[in-house]
Amino acid sequence: MSAPAQPSRWGVVSGRIDRLGQTRPDVVLLAPYMVYLLLLGLVSVVPPTWEWLAIAIRGVGSLAVVWAFRRHLPAWGKPYWTTALLGGLAAAYLWYAGQYLFDWIGLGGRLPVYPGEKVVTDPRDVLGARGLFHVTVTLRIIVAITAVPIVEELFWRAFLLRWLIDRDNFERVPLGKFTWFSFLATSLLSTIQHPDNWAVSIFCWMLFNALFYWTRSIKCLVLVHALTNLLLYLYVLKVDDWAFW
Question: Domain boundaries in the chain?
Answer without folding.
Answer: 75-244
